[in-house]
């Protein structure tokens, strides 16, 4: 089963989305290096050297990704200085960056289930006070759990859909 398309979207041959939010999101943060840097930021990493060490990426890649992610507004830079050392920047997640938590943890959950084998990966997400497992899933705004077949895609207001080339 798949998602249902409703209304003007029902005939997919008549439209295409040139500004697909999934495509735009992947262009913004869809590299492996960006995901690893975001993972580390969610785990509390803030300093360049720690990002490089914990992700095992080169300094050049970490510098480029942190610059891109900061330009996108996922991080802010704050200066700090340790005694006797030069001033450096810490990278702190913004609200925009924190909004990616479910995305990254959904990837973790998928990898645990489909790539790690029985028992999942080396880490688990749990609710801090109870230890209850945390799962990322499709839910209505009121919190009701949904299956893929329960979800429909509709247009988001008056934005035009580009005519399809087919």
Short description:
The protein has 166 residues and is of the alpha+beta class. The protein has helices spanning 21-29, 32-42, 48-55, 59-71, 95-98, 101-114, and strands at residues 4-5, 75-81, 87-93, 152-153.
Structural class: alpha+beta
Low-confidence stretches: none
Helix content: 25-40%
How many distinct folded domains?
A: 1
Strand order across the largest sheet: 1-4
On the 0-100 scale, what is the average pLDDT?
Answer: 91
Write the layout of secondary structure elements.
Layout: E1 4-5, H1 21-29, H2 32-42, H3 48-55, H4 59-71, E2 75-81, E3 87-93, H5 95-98, H6 101-114, E4 152-153
Helix pairs in contact: 3-4
Task: Fill in the keyword field for this structure.
single chain, two-stranded antiparallel ribbon, 166 residues, alpha+beta, two-stranded parallel ribbon, 6 helices, globular, Arc Repressor Mutant, subunit A
